[in-house]
Amino acid sequence: MGSSGSVNDRLAELERAFNARSQAQIDQQRQLNALQQEVSELRGLLEEQSYRLEQVVERQRSLLAAQQDAAAQQQAPAASAGRGTAEQDAAASGGGKASAPAGGDEQAAYDNAVNLVLQDKDYDAAIPAFARFITQYPQSTYVPNAHYWLGQLLYAQQRFDQAKAQFTRVVEAYQTSNKRADSILKLGVIAKEQGDNNLARQYFEQVLSEYGSSSAARLAQEYLGGL
Questions:
Q1: Distance between CA atoms of 111 and 140, rounded to whole angstroms?
Q2: Which long-range contacts (CB under 8 A, 24 or more apart) does 190-196 make?
Q3: Which of 1, 20, 22, 67 has a CA that sits 20 to 30 A from residue 79's CA?
Q4: Confidence of residue 169 (pLDDT cuts 50, 70, 90)
Q5: CA 35 to CA 29: how far, in whole Å?
Q6: pLDDT higher than 90, residue 81
Q7: Distance from CA of residue 20 to its chain's centroid?
Q8: C-beta separation of 134 from 143 below 8 A
Q9: Closest by alpha carbon to 173, among 95, 86, 92?
């Protein structure tokens, strides 16, 4: 009996030790799972913040370009003071052959849309303003620029498919527009945002091939390095 009791006591002790060890392993696994969940949440937060920062930087670039465009339109040399601002914009945009200056209503409509972006910062109102301008004045020399800035505004709202349609219109219909290089670049950025790195690479390489010395090409090179 004594021997049997000793064996039973020993087995009970071993079982308690085994159970204690098992519980410790369970507790460690729970802690590990909790840490992994916390790391996952922090990674997700970091990725979200990085994405938002990228959007802010891109928006600032877009607005800076818009301001430069507006400044260029306002700084016509005195020798050409007799020419209308619409004619100057046509020469800058390369949107086709020279045409007569824009009529008062056309000029006012375009200026209103631009001012909604540059002065009022009312991007929601600027979208329908540019869309109406394109519909009302389809032959205007401002149309390539209107398509481009409409694309920029839609992109800022992450309406990528609609933005893509606007940039594609500039690329395909206005071969000599000074917005074409930037539009190709933007198509690459959208493809990257949508997870199609192969298509993004094609667009960025197209910018480098066709506009190698432009600021758009420098940005395209940076994007290629990040793919």
A1: 13
A2: 190/155, 190/160, 190/163, 190/164, 192/223, 192/227, 193/160, 194/160
A3: 67
A4: very high
A5: 10
A6: no
A7: 55
A8: yes
A9: 95
Compute the distance between CA of residue 67 and CA of residue 155 in angstroms, rounded to an integer. 18
Long-range contacts of residues 200-209, Cβ cutoff 8 Å, at least 24 apart: 200/227, 201/227, 207/181
Whether the model clears a pTM of 0.70, i.e. scores above it, the answer is no
pLDDT of 11 over the 80 cut: no
In the prediction, which pLDDT does 21 show? 75
Query: In whole angstroms, what is the distance from residue 103 CA to residue 119 CA?
Result: 23
Q: Token pair of 121, please?
A: 């910062």
pLDDT of residue 191: 96
What's the whole-number mean pLDDT along residues 6-25? 72
- Cβ contact 73:92 at 8 Å: yes
- Dihedral-angle region of residue 96 (phi above 0 means left; psi in -120 to 50 means alpha; beta otherwise): left
pLDDT higher for 35 or 42? 35
Residue 159 has, within 13 A of its CA and on its CB side, a CA count of 13
How does DSSP classify residue 149?
H
Please enumerate in sequence order all residues whose Cβ is within 8 A of that of 95, keeping only pairs 6 or more positions apart, or say none.
Answer: 141, 142, 143, 144, 145, 174, 176, 177
User: Sign of the CA dihedral 151, 154, 156, 158?
Assistant: negative
The span from the CA of 213 to the CA of 196, in Å, is: 26
